[in-house]
Description:
Elements: E1 2-7, H1 12-21, E2 29-35, H2 41-48, E3 52-55, H3 64-78, E4 82-85, H4 94-99, E5 104-108, H5 120-126, E6 131-138, E7 148-155, H6 162-185, E8 189-191, E9 197-199
Helix pairs in contact: 1-6
5-O-phosphono-beta-D-ribofuranosylamine is lined by residues 7, 9-13, 86-87, 107-109, 170, 173.
Amino acid sequence: VSVAVMISGRGSNMGALIAAALDAGFPAKIVSVISDKPEAKGLEHAREFGIEALAIPRSDYPSKADHEAAVIAALDASGARIIALAGYMRLLSGDFVKRYAGRMINIHPSLLPAFPGLATHERALAAGCRVHGCTVHFVTEGMDEGPIIEQEAVRVERGDTPDTLAARVLEAEHRIYPMALAMLARGEVRMSGDNRAQFAG
Ligand code: GRF
């Protein structure tokens, strides 16, 4: 199954997906990386692996709809069947999300439904959470609201700062994102019409 990864920055989750897909037994192949930020570090990294890496900046287009049309054209041209958002920092329109319903997934650095949105590690610490973590979910219209495919919990340690906590959560992200992508690519999970995750077997 062909996969396109959408990023805005560092791209370490993209890197984890690329690394996992190098394994001959992995059921998905990363065919394209698209960033809305030309300076995203992940673009260079993808090219080092011989993967097509495109910058499609929002500022090159008069409207959000025109920008999304350009992204859709690039995704279609890539032949990707699955879209993996990996630190793509732009909210996608309802039309975009519906087009890829059940085929687009995202990684989020909290145990959803706790802490959707930004600054998740700060907020988990401020709330006094003893457990935090990360989630891979199908993308639906509400931000960070789609059905959950996989999660990993990370204990909050005494003395954790947002940065130390983020670093441990990121390691967990790099474990569960390839796992969740493989589940989707193998057909072990799908999104039903009423936006629920259904697991096979
Ligand atoms: C990750 O924490 C991801 O969960 C969040 O943005 C960050 C992206 O990091 N959505 P990277 O670009 O994958 O290194």
